[in-house]
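Worked problem 6 (solution included).
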Amino acid sequence: MSPRILRERLPRAPFPRLTRAAGLVPAAAAALVLLLGSPLAEPGGGTAPRSGPAPTAAAPLPAALPAARPVRIDIPGLRVSAPLVGLTLDSRGKLGVPDPADRNLAGWYRDGVPPGSPGNAIVVAHVDTATGPAAFAGLDALPLGSAVEVRRADRRIATFRVYAVQEYEKRDFPSTRVYGPTRDAQLRLLTCGGAYDRSAGGYQSNVVAFARLASVRPG
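Solution. The predicted structure is:
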C-alpha cells in the first residue's frame, strides 16, 4: 500500500543521508516504531513524492542549538499551545504517550534529540481523546510552510517550518524515513489518523509532519 502524501515540498538538497552521528540511531528507531504498531522493514513500492516548483535560491539554515529541554510547543496553524512532557520507552520497548486525560498535552522522546539540536527530534500527541479533539487534531490538514515553535528551557524559541505532511498505514510505516537521523536540526510531529476501527485497535494510520529548523530567537 502506498503512503498517502497529503502535502510535500521536496527539500532544497537531497534527503540527508542517515548516519549514526546525528539524531536517532537505528536501535532507537526500531524501539520507537513499536509505538505505532508498525514493522521496522520499509514498505515495498510506493509512489514518488509530489513537489512544487524548483526553488530559485537556497536560504541559509540557522545553526543548530546545544541540547536543552523543550517545555512548550506552539502551532499557530492549529491554534495549539501545549506543554511538553518527556516520554521514554517502557519495558516492552514502546514509547509512552501523553496522558490522555489532558487533551492539551504533547510529549517528546527525551532519550533522543531535543528540538533545535542537531538531528531528528520526535514529538507526539493525541489526535483526540474520550472527551474530544486533542492537541494534534487537524495535523493532517496543516499547510506546508506552517510554523512550529518550540520553547526551550534555555529561554530560546526554535521555529521550524513544515515541508511535508504524510499519512502512513501502520502496517507500512517507513521507520527509517520518519525516525532516521538527520544532519541538520529537524522535527517530526506524529499523531494517529486514517480510518478508526475499534475492533482492530483504533486508528489504522499515522499522520507525520516533517519540519526543519528555520530560525531561533530569544524566549
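Discussion: The chain has one domain: 4-40+70-218.
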